[in-house]
Amino acid sequence: MGFDDQLPPKTRLLRAAAELLANSEGSAVSTRQITKLAGVTAPTLYHHFGTKEGLFDAVVSAGFEEYVAGERDFAPSGEPLEDVRRMWDNHVRFGLTQPHLYLVMFGNIRPESRPSIVADAEALMEEMLNKAAASGQLNVAPREAARSILAANVGVTLMLIAEPVEDRNLELSTMTRDSMISAVSTDKARGAATGDAGKSSVVVAAIALNAALQASHSDQLSSSELKLFLEWLHRISSSS
Amino acid sequence: MGFDDQLPPKTRLLRAAAELLANSEGSAVSTRQITKLAGVTAPTLYHHFGTKEGLFDAVVSAGFEEYVAGERDFAPSGEPLEDVRRMWDNHVRFGLTQPHLYLVMFGNIRPESRPSIVADAEALMEEMLNKAAASGQLNVAPREAARSILAANVGVTLMLIAEPVEDRNLELSTMTRDSMISAVSTDKARGAATGDAGKSSVVVAAIALNAALQASHSDQLSSSELKLFLEWLHRISSSS
DNA sequence: CCAGTTCATATAGCAACGCTATAGGTGCTA
DNA sequence: TAGCACCTATAGCGTTGCTATATGAACTGG
User: Fold this and answer.
1) pLDDT per residue as tens digits for the range B25-84
2) Contact of B209 with B134, CB cutoff 8 Å
3) Do A212 and A237 form a contact (C-beta atoms < 8 A)?
4) Which residues in B lie closer than 8 A to residue A215 (C-beta atoms)?
5) How high is the pLDDT of residue A61?
6) B59-184: CATH, from 1.10.357.10, 3.30.1950.10, 3.40.630.30, 1.10.10.10
7) In Å, how far are A72, A75, A158, B173 from B156, measured between CA atoms?
């Protein structure tokens, strides 16, 4: 069925399952679809993988190796916290590129396989944070920081996956990422080079005024004036 | 089948589904199990709910109302950020108490129902953050802060649910919670909220913004825009 | 060179699944 | 009492995950 007949059936099953899992938008994938695409019959699948879940686990293992490879495959920048940011972004990118694989890995609740994968991902993050801790950039234990950061990372990625593609806003990711990192690290205020106290107080005041205006329905401005006013407020308060 | 036969079939179906959903450890629940427990036959289910998913959606709606009730049912402490912490803890508690319901609500990826639930939860959080913003305690827009906090909240809760009960460490929750809140808030009362009890918060915020703008020479607005903006600001702040 | 063993695949089919076409029973209003 | 919604049951369709059984191919020991 349009699949390389030279490959051994086990490989063909793995590829067929991965392909169907990747293309089916959330809906279930049946063993009959898989075996048909792989060009084998049902018992072959159960001979090699025992169960449908077993086949999916094998696919997930392959996917996790790809994930780990992605998390390791960049030159360390010498700045550990910067590398943590890259790991975060890699994580999100992996989730958005392979949402179904990601959901099986991080979204499901499967008392056996999931914790092990999560533990491995945590270990990767902790490893990186150890370097930051060694140079005095962390104010909490690396393990706890890794767990906390990874939890937020998973939450953000799930949010983004669940959103329609057209209005996915990656700023949610970068903002949460920097919040988490700055909270566990000693050197606060990323981008402090450009940030100064006066400007940030403008932002704070603008945000406060915006919230207060919307809550109070002040009639000091006409509706058209208010609209423009709020637009400018937004421009001010979204500058960082 | 051991279910109150006085109740209408629709209610019995809902209760049976909720019970089976709550007790089945992750494994699927079949319509036949549900209808048998409810003491009705298959077509009754489809008459009332259209589809299996429809029945589950109804269960989730009930669960969500319970969630919202939990998020609203505490006296505001007068300190908005403290209330945000309580909302966070409520969220986690709800997830750990009803993990299966929670997973359907926040863990699954269902392009229709999930975003609406998430959006409602975000609105709840944003509502609370608006109060914080009005008193100048936020340094990002309430909506973005709400999305970010909720994402981390969901991620932490999923982590905790996936962990074996015996070594669940709630410190992960409090630590991530405080990290997110401290990253998004500004504990220093920057001018805006300094004890001007008499004036409305709009006026206070406008005055603060006015002062801050003149001190910082922000370049987000052109000079003509700035002039008009300040004029409006003056109109707002001189109203009492 | 062949009997024995093991591995890998196919034929055929089971029980359970979500779902529905159809019909019968119930309580209401006219 | 007739008619009409509404609600539920009988029976069964097509599909699902999975398997008891059998067959062919490849290797091994004598």
Assistant:
1) 667 889 999 999 999 999 999 999 999 989 998 998 888 888 888 888 776 777 889 999
2) no
3) no
4) 130, 134, 201
5) 87
6) 1.10.357.10
7) 24, 30, 12, 6
Q: Is the CB of B3 under 7 A from strand C?
A: no
Class of the domain covering B9-50: mainly alpha
Q: Does residue A191 sit at the B interface (CB-CB below 8 Å)?
A: no
Q: Which residues of B touch A96 (CB under 8 A)?
A: none
- Tens of pLDDT, residue by residue over B118-167, are 888 999 999 999 888 888 889 888 999 999 999 999 999 999 988 888 88
- Straight-line distance from the first to the last Cα atom of chain B, in angstroms, rounded to the nearest whole number: 68
Rounded Cα distance between B37 and B60, Å, is 19
Distances (CA, A) of B5 to B8, B37, B38, B82, B215: 8, 11, 9, 46, 73
> In CATH, what number does A60-184 get?
1.10.357.10
Q: Which two tokens stand for residue A198?
A: 């006066």
CATH topology assigned to domain A1-50: Arc Repressor Mutant, subunit A (1.10.10)
Domain ranges of chain A: 1-50, 60-184, 197-237
B165 touching chain A per CB within 8 A: no
Model pTM score: 0.76
Question: Alpha-carbon distance A99 to A94, whole Å?
Answer: 8
